[in-house]
Specification:
Layout lengths: L1 H22 L3 E4 L18 E5 L20 E3 L10 H5 L6 E3 L20 E3 L10
Parallel strand pairs: 1-2, 2-3, 3-4, 4-5
C-alpha cells in the first residue's frame, strides 16, 4: 500500500510541477484526517508545494521528507502524536513561515524554538500545568 501511495504522490508531483512551471501557480495539499503515520520520499518531488495540511493524522515524529521541500511555507501538523521535532532541519527551511504543532505531545525542547532562533512562527498548545501534590 505504501508503494502505491508513493507512486500516486509521484504522479501528482509531475502534474503539479508541470502546471506550476507553465502557469506560475502554487500548490496547497490537504491530507488531513487520513490516519497517515509517514510520508513517502516522493513528496520531496513536489517542488512548488507551499502549504501542506497533515492535521489529524498519526505522525509520531515530524515527517522529515518535508524538510527538503524548498518552497514549503506552511506546515499544519495539529492533532498528531509528535513528540520530537528536528530542530536543525526546521531552522534550515528558508521558506518556512508557519509550523502548527498544536495538540501534539511535543517535548520541552520544541518550546525553545522561538524567534530569532528560527525564522518562522511556531504554534503550540499551552503547556499543561503540573498538578500540585
Amino acid at each position: 500500500m505504501h508503494k502505491r501511495m508513493g507512486e500516486a504522490v509521484a504522479r501528482v508531483a509531475r502534474k503539479v510541477n508541470h502546471t506550476v512551471e507553465n502557469k506560475t501557480d502554487s500548490l496547497e495539499l490537504n491530507l488531513a484526517g487520513n490516519y497517515l503515520h509517514r510520508l513517502p520520499e516522493e513528496v520531496t518531488s513536489l517542488l512548488h508545494l507551499r502549504t501542506i495540511n497533515l492535521s489529524r493524522n498519526r505522525f509520531r515524529r515530524f515527517p522529515e521528507p518535508l524538510a527538503t521541500v524548498a518552497a514549503l511555507e506552511t506546515i499544519d501538523l495539529e492533532e498528531n502524536e509528535i513528540t520530537e521535532v528536528p530542530v536543525e532541519k526546521l531552522a534550515s527551511m528558508a521558506s518556512l513561515q508557519s509550523l502548527n504543532l498544536r495538540a501534539n505531545p511535543v517535548g520541552p525542547e520544541a518550546r525553545l524554538l522561538v524567534r530569532p532562533l528560527v525564522p518562522f512562527d511556531l504554534l503550540l498548545s499551552p503547556e499543561e500545568p503540573i498538578p500540585k501534590a
